[in-house]
Write a structure and sequence with these properties.
Layout: H1 3-6, E1 7-8, E2 19-20, H2 27-35, H3 40-46, H4 52-68
Antiparallel strand pairs: 1-2
Helix pairs in contact: 2-4
Amino acid sequence: MSYQERITLDPSKRGGKPCIRGLRITVYDVLEYLASGMTEAEILVDFPDLTREDIRACLEFAADRERKLVSLPSR
């Protein structure tokens, strides 16, 4: 399953931010937890509705978004 099948955008949830499978947990939330040092296992314990595949989908979403950013010319 690709991240496009797990990451949803719904204007009525979390202000239209990318969420996981229609839940109220955003991609940003998961990325922030990982960046703060939480392990995948800790996230799964704290958020039992999530799966390892959901966390990987967040990482894949972020990587894809980064790839699509337009590079600004250097000055």
